[in-house]
Design brief:
Length: 285
């Protein structure tokens, strides 16, 4: 089976389904209720993580920050950015006919239904907007996937840790110790994470949203910490407080999908008002 190195997953949804298989909803769905992959699909997930774990190095992250955090690709309203994201079509996902915008509205509406603050609702709506990186030609393994700190030893709690054997940082004495380039409990504000949609969107929104929202955006794919607590040695006390919000957000991220599509035209005025409350008229990508 030939696998495209830039797009090993037939659909970005396969990564999310893999997360669900690892962290099933405790009260409702048993693990076996989620999609069971046949061998070729499982192989593509493994290949995705092989690429991710091979190429997500400390230097790679610095290069991507230099490339994308100049925000010189596009300037458009937030709703326009969501419509741009919607041109990223996952035709091959058999589980749902919903598009990216409908998925995000489902997450946000589940948060709103539970009575959370409006900035929390907005975070649910925005949290995957960084996937527009795919539309700028970035490979899947540099857009989605579990995130993790770079510049220090890779935890064995990260999914498919065996693939870090291919990562040059594993053999670089600057980066392969427990703390690497960091100090004990230095705080995540001083830690570089692997590059992807989480980090990108954090930098787009960091001057506008409340701090708990920024933690949700930046660390919602950091499963080795918020599920496995593998990097407590890097977190400071403030991180631990803020991760209570990440933990609140995570079930909405994972478990709010429904086959019933939201009616975008009915919801758009509410979300446009919410966007206007917190964000500028246009954002730069």
């Amino acid at each position: 089976m030939m696998i495209d190195q830039n797009a090993p997953l037939a659909s970005l949804e396969l990564w999310e389904d893999d997360v669900l298989s690892r962290y099933p909803q405790p009260e409702h769905k048993a693990k076996e209720d989620y999609r069971n992959y046949d061998t070729p699909e499982r192989d593509t997930v493994r290949e995705f993580y092989r690429l991710n774990h091979t190429y997500q190095t400390y230097d790679f992250v610095q290069q991507k920050k230099a490339e994308f955090l100049s925000f010189d690709k596009k300037e458009l309203p937030v709703w326009g950015a969501m419509e741009f994201l919607n041109t990223l079509v996952d035709d091959s996902d058999p589980d749902t006919d919903l598009d990216q915008l409908q998925h995000l509205l489902q997450t946000a509406e589940a948060i709103r239904a539970d009575g959370h603050p409006d900035w929390f609702v907005l975070t649910g709506f925005l949290h995957d907007m960084g996937k527009v990186l795919c539309l700028f030609g970035e490979p899947q393994w540099a857009v989605v996937g579990d995130t993790f700190p770079v510049g220090c030893k890779h935890s064995d709690k990260i999914v498919y840790p065996e693939y870090f054997v291919n990562n040059p940082d594993s053999y670089d004495e600057r980066y392969n110790t427990k703390y690497g380039v960091y100090e004990p409990n230095c705080g995540l504000k001083n830690v570089d994470m692997s590059w992807g949609h989480d980090e990108y969107l954090y930098h787009i929104t960091k001057n506008y949203l409340p701090e708990p929202a920024l933690y949700m955006i930046r660390y919602h794919s950091f499963y080795s910490q918020h599920r496995e607590h593998a990097y407590n040695h890097l977190l400071d006390d403030h991180d631990h407080e803020m991760f209570k919000w990440v933990n609140k957000f995570n079930p909405y991220d994972l478990y709010s999908k429904s086959p019933k599509p939201p009616v975008v035209s009915e919801l758009r005025p509410y979300y446009e008002d919410l966007i206007a409350k917190y964000l500028p008229a246009t954002i730069r990508l």
